Amino acid sequence: MKFSKKLISWYLQNKRTMPWRETKNPYHIWLSEIILQQTRVAQGLPYYLSFIDTFPTVFDLANANEDDVLKLWQGLGYYSRARNLHITAKYVANELQGVFPSNYKDLLALKGVGDYTASAIASICYDEPVPVVDGNVYRVLSRFFGIKTPINTTAGVREFKELAIELMDHDEPANYNQAIMEFGALQCKPKSPYCIVCPLNDSCEGLKNGWIDTLPVKLKKQKIKKRYFNYLVYSINGKQTILQQRKGNGIWKGLYEFPLIEVEENDRDSIMSNAFFQKMINGHEYKITQYREEPIVHKLSHQHLYTRFYIVNVNKLPALTKEQKIIDFAETHTYPVPILLGNFIEEFFKV
Fold first, then answer.
1. How far, in Å, are 25, 116, 182, 208 from residue 137 at the CA level?
2. What are residue 235's DSSP bridge partners?
3. What is the pLDDT tens value at each position of the chain, 351 positions in all?
4. What CATH number belongs to 3-214?
5. What would the DSSP string read from start to end of 272-315?
6. 33 annotated active-site
7. Where does the HhH-GPD domain lie (predicted)?
8. For residues 143 and 212, is the Cβ–Cβ distance under 8 A?
9. Do 241 and 309 form a contact (C-beta atoms < 8 A)?
10. C-alpha distances in angstroms, 299 versus 56, 225, 305?
11. What's the distance, CA 85 to chain centroid?
């Protein structure tokens, strides 16, 4: 039995029950694929269900306020995915009358849809024989064929894509693509794969040569950058605080946060003497205390944020910038914020 048929046979016997596997609705498949980018299934499933419940159709998502979309996305990270999701929903609803493109090439033109996502939607919804290549697929193919080309290089991407095209099952493209991804997630796992009971173990080069633990090869990432965030959590008469919307093109664009001082000096005296803080206080009396002695370290893929929260008690309104707004304590729970701040809000602003 050839490679693809063995995988499909394994899949039909071992696949997990998932709501997006019960449909070929391109809206549902697209939504699941965007959510599951860089997200484990166990984490992504509740978000998928919430999105389908809140926005049953692409028109509902298109008509939503961006803040509501970001709030529902809160905790998944990589917020550009949510913004692109909203942009594409508007395009499909308004320009395509709610009908998703029905082929790989046109799907690829949608904002936020790359090669993998376009292949998944095209094969699952329209039975187009285009292969998916994600982390699971890289792992399965590199181990089975003994490929040592780094997967995060141009040569590696090209080599694995060409191999994936060659192996594509043209009779059952939807089942094959889902099979190889599921196989990598459940059977050919990153650590401690089930090689003894693997249906491919008689022909696996990685197993035969003892390379399982070293494949796939991936070049080391760039050095992690350290940043030092100091948030000013104002308590105005013990009832209100200040939030501001983050601008620019960073990963948290459009999300809300407390007034921020980004400097390496993580101590109360340096914060009190900071020009931004002094301008906001505007000469009024205040009392500032540090929330927790040690910084909270929030780890992102390319940077680590060393974060402190300073509670600033005041009786008179601080001077605000145009991006800042005063809100009641209870309202802090309704704004879309990074999970780092969401955890703090849940802990500090108990309602």
1. 24, 11, 9, 19
2. 313
3. 589 999 999 999 999 999 999 999 999 999 999 999 888 999 999 999 999 999 999 999 999 999 999 999 999 988 999 999 999 999 999 999 999 999 999 999 999 999 999 999 999 999 999 999 999 999 999 999 999 999 999 999 999 999 999 999 999 999 999 999 999 999 999 999 999 999 999 999 999 999 999 999 999 877 888 999 999 999 999 999 999 998 877 778 889 999 999 987 667 788 888 888 898 988 889 999 999 888 899 988 788 999 999 999 999 888 888 889 999 999 999 999 999 999 999 999 875
4. 1.10.340.30
5. HT-HHHHHHHTT--EEEEEEEEEEEEEE-SSEEEEEEEEEEEES
6. yes
7. 35-186
8. yes
9. no
10. 33, 10, 6
11. 12
Nearest alpha-carbon partner for 267 in 228, 319, 225, 227: 228
Whether a cis peptide bond, with omega within 30° of 0, leads into 216 is yes
Here the tokens at position 52 are: 């389908």
Of 33, 128, 159, 182, which is the active-site residue?
33
The domain locations on the chain are 3-214, 225-348
The fourth-level CATH superfamily of domain 225-348 is Nucleoside Triphosphate Pyrophosphohydrolase (3.90.79.10)
Q: Angle 199-160-3 (CA atoms, 0-180°, nearest 5)? A: 25
- Residues 109, 101: contact at Cβ < 8 Å? yes
